[in-house]
Amino acid sequence: MTNLLEPPLDRVYRRRESIDGVNERRLARRIERGELIRVAPGSFVTSSTWSVLKPIDQYAQRVWEAASRTSRGTVFSHAAACALWGIDMLGDAGDRVDVSVERTSGGRTTGNLRRHTRDMARVQVTAWGDHWITTPGQTILDMAAAHSFTMGVVVADRALWSRRTGGPLLSLGELRAGADEYRGRGEVRARRMAEFASADSDSVRESQSRIVIDALGFPSPELQHPFVLPDGRVVRTDFFWQEWDHVGEFDGVGKYIDAAILRGRTPAQALIEEKDREDALRRIVRRVSRWRTPQLQRPAQLWDILTRAGLPSATPRPGR
Q1: Are 216 and 302 in contact (CB under 8 A)?
Q2: pTM of this prediction exceeds 0.85
């Protein structure tokens, strides 16, 4: 799902407008009481509606607010383009909105905009209202080049995801062809990212897990391997090392608290179902390893989890 056609929120209180009789004094009182929060210069939304948005949708709202204030023909890129295309990112995108400008324009930031100076003739864009937005392929390569290999893989996997609502934004072949032609700072990292990217990672943390597993010297796992449980259900596991009959799972908390994932179940019901699923898997494979976000932030812990379960590593245990 993208944020291209309309902003996530339809009610925004703006100082430059007089919506529902909003004035400075009333606005100040509501901000002081914590009823409104600032999402862009002069733009505020209710805390209750903001708190239920996913981080990518919160950032998309900031992009829409910035677009309403910038001159016609602005090119939105990098994290801003990710948010509009609905490409999940790793971490918080912050308050500044990314735009790309010609090198001769000079300056890297202005107001709440983060300006990326570049040769715009080489940047692939598509129309977005009165403005422009970098294409999905361009956006992914820009994120890898400007940030890190990890960020690049994460956003690439989300754009390529085979089960993405509405279908993938591009193919792996298209991404790799674009990487071959990409020029500029970070181009080597962008090409490496394109080679590593996959259409089978189901979440940001699964992508991050795959990167850490590779960096720790473990064999490459199969993604989303199907298993038929004793009760006839077919389930897919995050990672499977067939030679070692070893399943690996990232245990995200979203499955226990996200209403969209719970689909009417209580967190306790979701926890019990997950436990039953793991018990069933353990009856048909030799090893099941699970980890959470802290183990991705401290790779030595993930190294311990996997090696203690019998998975071989080609590298020594990291220091942290």
Answers
A1: yes
A2: yes
Q: Are strands 109-110 and 222-228 parallel, antiparallel or unpaired?
A: unpaired
Among 3-17, 51-65, 112-126, 148-162, the minimum mean pLDDT is found in 3-17
- Residue 256 one-letter amino acid: Y
Taking a C-beta distance cutoff of 8 angstroms, is the pair 192, 212 a contact?
Answer: no
- DSSP 8-state secondary structure symbol assigned to residue 105: G
Q: How far apart are CA 56 and CA 64, in angstroms?
A: 12
Q: What is the spatial distance between Cα 90 and Cα 56, in angstroms, rounded to a whole number? A: 10
φ and ψ at 181, to 5 degrees?
-95, -10
Q: Which residue has the higher pLDDT, 106 or 116?
A: 116
HEC string for 124-160: CEEEECCEEEECHHHHHHHHHHHCCHHHHHHHHHHHH
CA distances from 169 to 29, 39, 57, 160, 166 (A): 44, 28, 18, 6, 8
> For residue range 178-212, what is the model confidence (pLDDT) as tens digits?
999 998 888 999 999 999 999 999 999 999 999 99
